[in-house]
Each structure stands twice: as structure tokens, then as C-alpha cells.
Fold this sequence. Notes:
By secondary structure, this protein is an alpha+beta fold. It contains six helices and 17 strands. Strands 1, 3, 4, 6, 9 and 11 form a six-stranded antiparallel beta sheet that branches. Strands 2, 5, 7, 8, 10 and 12 form a six-stranded antiparallel beta sheet that branches. The protein has a five-stranded parallel beta sheet with strand order 14-13-15-16-17. Helix 2 (167-174) crosses helix 6 and helix 4 (257-278) crosses helix 5 (295-310).
Amino acid sequence: MKYTMDDPNIRYMGRIDNSDPKSPTMYYAGSQMKIRFTGDNISVSLKNHTVWGNVSLGYVVDGREGRLPLDPQNNDKEITVKAAGNLGGGVHTIIFYKRLAANHYITFTGIDIENGEILPDETRYDLKIEVYGDSVSAGEVCEAVDFVGLCDPENHGSIYDNSWHSYAMQTARALNAEIHNIAQGGIAIFDGTGYFHAPDYIGMETVYDKLCYFPEGGELTHWDFSRYTPDIVIIALGQNDKHNGLTDSDDIDITDPSTRKHWKDGYKKLVRSLSEKYGSGTKFVLTTTVLNHDKAWDDTVEEIKNELIAENIKAYHNLFSRNGCATHGHPRIPEHDEMARELTRFIRLNVL
């Protein structure tokens, strides 16, 4: 049986463009749709546009993870791919999710189930979480498990990126929470800094309120914040902010008083804007990750946390046990597992 994407039993999660309900588009890593169904085989029809790298659509069917490679030669062409087959009788669940960030965007156009039908999804979530982060929150290079604690493998072409295993997505699942993961590799707070979208660097100050957030996806569009009000917002920025985008060096010195003030002001402006949109009930967890970085950035985040509390914003500062000193390269799945356990515990003990 064929289904259109506006079927009420398809469960979407993430900051997704559904201005055309029959053709929802995913831009952000970790965006997903969940389908509960009966039947032997399930296929999905879609149009993908690869910007760069090795791109796949991720899926998890009945707890088993897989991916569907997306050939850039098919850019913007409607294709149909079988996601799972020979499932046998009974009820099944599949989650299609976006493994990567701005490497591509993807529009879904239909679902086809053989010898079965879509059923209502009965999942009930306890929380709503939103994350503003960089490549670690997006799960970039996490599948390179032979490189735990080491620099990234050369010329990997994003083949090891998988948002499903990021600490952010794992934490949401551990807390039985919905999640909007606004994470992008290389991003810093300010435009013109960090590493995202060289040479015209785009910062979180531009991305945070966007639906389509990178020019290759088309016209930048604004997100309607009334569509989703999180209980907890996690801010995981600071790793890339030391780079001013002008040279290959890390040129920004956070210990310089004027630089420190400028960065703190930009960070607090982001939190204040979100707090105004969401109201006083939303709590903010500020963090960095286990990826190596100067402790001065964490000291600055601690100052920000205290200053936000003084403004009556519910702010908390999470520090992982190996914060900023676990690995020269991106965290791999075991390190994401570690971060997820620790962040879940921190939220349960201090925030909820």
C-alpha cells in the first residue's frame, strides 16, 4: 500500500520543513520520522541533494541499524529504495533519520508497504530537548571506532558520520525525550568565525532561528519557534570559536578581556533570545565536550552560567569527567556513549 507523507500516523521529530506536508524536507542532522507498521517490506521515495561527501539515509528497523547510500548522480531526482524486506509477520517499527548535517538535504515523497499498513505510533515522551552544537553534537566521524583517542582518519569524506550515535541523540533516548538537534560541524557562535561554510563562515547567530540554514539548500528560511517549546536546551558551543576564519591558525584568545567579553555577550544574547521565545520554564544546560580544548573556554562558560542565573534564567553548567582532554580527534561511539551516560545523569540529578 502506498502512503503520502502527510499520513497522520507518520511520527516526525526534529526541525523539519513541512510547509508542503506531502513533501517534508530535512536539513538538520538527527531529523527523523518514525513509522509503525505491519507488512513484509517497506520502501521510501525521496529526492536527495548532495552538497559534498559520502551521503546515506540512516534507518533503524526493529532495533537493527542500517543505511541507504544516496548517489549524487541522482541529485534532485525522485528515487525509491527498499529499506527493509522479508520482515515476516507481526508489527514492526522503522525510523528513518538524517545521518549527516549540511552535507545534503532530503525531501521525502512517499512510503510503500507490501502486504501491510501503517499503524498509529503509541510512543509517549517525557521531555522535549533542543541542542545547539557543533560536529560532536552532530555525531561527525563517530563511527571511526579504530581511532578512539586519535586524530580523524584522512580523507574520510563523512563516511563515518552518524547522528544517531551522538551523545545528544543518545541522551534524548535515555531520557525518553523528543529532540531537535540544531548541530553543525565547524560552527561557532559568530558569523565569520569557526569553520562552517568556508570561506563565507556562518555562525550559530545566523543558524539558530533558521529552518533551511545553508545556502546550498536554497533560500534561508525562518523557523517558527511556536512549533516546539523544549523543557531543556543544551548549548554545546565553544570548540570552534577560537578560529577567526582568516587564517589556518587559532587566532582568537579567550583569555584576552575584550575578546572574552565579546564572546560572552554573543553567547548570552543567544540564550536570552531563546529564553524569551520559550518562557521561564525552559532550562539551559551549557557544556563543551571531551574533544581537546583549552580549559579557559570552560571557565568562560562557567562565568556565563553565573551571569545568566543573575538574570533569572535557569542555567546549569555540565562538565564531563574528561572534559576537553579525552581525544585529539572527534569522539567515537564509545566516547559518545560515555558523554551520554554522564550528561543523562547530570540532567537527572541537577536539572529535572
